[in-house]
Amino acid sequence: MHIYRSEGSDVAALSGVDITVRPGEVVGLLGPSGSGKSTLLALLAGLFQPSAGKVFVGDRDLAALTESELNRYQAVDGSLMLQGARRNLVPYLTIRGNVDFARQHAAKLGDEVPTTQEVVDLIGAGEIADRPLSELSQGQLQLGALAVALAPGPGIVLADEPTSALDHAARDRILDTLLDVNRRSGATIVIVTHDPDVAARLPRTVTIRDGRIGGEGRLGQEYAVVTADGFLPLPLHVREGLPPGTLVRLERDGENWRLVPEAGGLPGGGDDVIQ
Hints:
- With 275 residues, this protein is α/β, with parallel strands linked by helices.
- It folds into two domains: 2-209, P-loop containing nucleotide triphosphate hydrolases (Rossmann fold, 3-Layer(aba) Sandwich), CATH 3.40.50; 241-275, no CATH class.
- 29% of the residues lie in helices and 23% in strands.
- The chain has helices at residues 37-44, 67-77, 95-108, 116-122, 138-150, 168-185, 196-200, 236-239, and strands spanning 2-6, 9-14, 26-30, 56-57, 60-61, 78-81, 156-160, 188-192, 204-209, 212-218, 221-223, 248-253, 256-261.
- The longest helix is centred in the middle third of the chain and has 18 residues, at 168-185.
- Residues 1-235 form the ABC transporter domain.
- GO terms for molecular function: ATP binding.
């Protein structure tokens, strides 16, 4: 759970979220604006602590890390790509210069990190690596932001809307690069996106709605998810057919369950069955 506190009101951005991401997995976080997906990404990055509950990366409880351990996690193990390419880049450096700058801190910690050239080659940015950022397109800048995130050779990459404001060609190149990085390096990748075309290409998606897990997707098929506290959020296409206040019951039908609105519970009455 995470609550944003302000004078006069508290806003629960996340409530009862229970999610496991396996090492080497690619997961998309979906949901409307304000649903809590970027807050979850920030918690995974260790930018702040949850108001309740725990956030584990591997066997590490991020809230229990010392300041030096958290600095190491953020500098080496977990890379966060902020939304908007320029927020990730030093404006007076080239892509190559930005990568070199980003990897310096990790190298000082004694870790074996990729060379700058290896990172440039990994994302296929050789032709633009030494050009001023002012000469680059939005898609090329986003490629540079990805290079910065990969500079320390992280085990987990957290990307907040990495394809937003891009044309289709640039969007596909960024997504292709992220998936290729996952295949080649084994890095875990968590992507916040609102783009259904991006979500359709991801092997697993998690929909967050009203601060809770609202469903999961596997290869284009959407599933409802029973949460740890027994909450069962209905998929959006089902909720659209059930106005607020509708009474429903669950009935066992062999190996399947049926969701049955009570007679009179829907406008016009009836006993429609949703399977």
